[in-house]
Amino acid sequence: MTIAGILLTCVQRLTPLTTLTSLSAKLTDAKLGKGTQFLIKSFIKQFKIDLSQCADPDISHYQTFNEFFTRKLKDDARPLGNGTLVMPADGTLGMAGPITAGRLIQAKGLDYSLLSLVGGLKEDAALFTPGWYATVYLSPANYHRVHIPADGTLVKTVHIPGRLFPVGTNNIALVPDLYTKNERLVCFFNGPCGDFAVILVGAALVGSIATVWGGTIVRRKNIEVTYFKDNPPQFKKGDEIGLFKYGSTVVTLWPGHAPAPLQELNIGAPVQVCSNLTA
Questions:
Q1: How far is CA 91 from CA 135, 141, 144, 265, 278, in A?
Q2: pTM, to two decimals
Q3: Residues 262, 105, 251, CA angle at the centre, nearest 5°?
Q4: Active-site annotation, residues
Q5: For 120-154, how does the pLDDT look when each residue is reduced to its tens digit (9 = 90+)?
Q6: Do 108 and 169 touch, CB atoms closer than 8 A?
Q7: Rounded CA gap, 251 and 84, in Å?
Q8: Which of 1, 43, 143, 267 has its CA 20 to 30 A from that of 273?
C-alpha cells in the first residue's frame, strides 16, 4: 500500500462517513418545496443533465431531490442491445477481465478477493472459479437505476454491511480492497448463461440501495442471506432490478472463461445501460 493510500484511508476512517450519509439521505428525501426545486436546478446545471431523456422532464413534479435523482428514463432512451449480455448501468467501465487466482483487479497495482466480495462463502466464490467480471462506476451525473444484464431468476441475496468509503477515481486507485470494505448487496441469479451475480456496492453519501423485489435495503450489523425458493423473481435481459440514491458501483460476475469480446472493451470509457457487454 502506498503512503498516499495509507493517508487517504486514515482520513476516511476518521471521517464520520456513515453519519454524513445518513444526514444526506434525510435531506435528499425531504420535501423542501422551493428548496427542493433549487437543489434540482443546481444539480441539472452542474452535471448537464439531459432532461429530454427523462420519462417526466417537468422538474416541478419531483417533490424530493431523490425522486429526481432516481428518475426513470423514457422507454426508448436506452435501446436493448442484441448481444448475449448487456451493461447493467450507465457509468464508466472501471475494469473487466478474468478472475485470476480468486482475485479481481480494482486498479493498476491493486486487486481484491472474490471470496470477500461475495460475503465469505466458498460455495458462492466457487461459482466464478474460473470466472470473469466487469465493473461499472456511476457518477452523480449518471442515470441511477440498475438493470439485469441477462435473463435470470433470483436465487438469493447476500447483504454485507460495511464501510461507506467514496468510490471515486482517487479511492479506487489508492485504497486496497475498497469494494470488499464497503457495504454491498450481492444478488445471485441463474439463467440460460448459467449462474451470475450482480453486486450493488454502496459508497459515501449513497442514501440507500433499493431493489424492485424488496424495496430499500436496511443497514444491519451482520451479514444477511435471503433465499428465494417459492415464486422467485424472474427477469428478462434489460429489466430494472434496483437503484442507488447516489453515485456508486455495480460489479457483475460470470462463470467460465472470459469471452474474446471482453478484450475489445475500452476500460475507462463511458457506457450505457442495456448496451452490449459482449457480442
A1: 10, 9, 9, 14, 17
A2: 0.87
A3: 70
A4: 90, 147, 248
A5: 999 999 999 999 999 999 988 899 999 999 999 99
A6: no
A7: 17
A8: 43
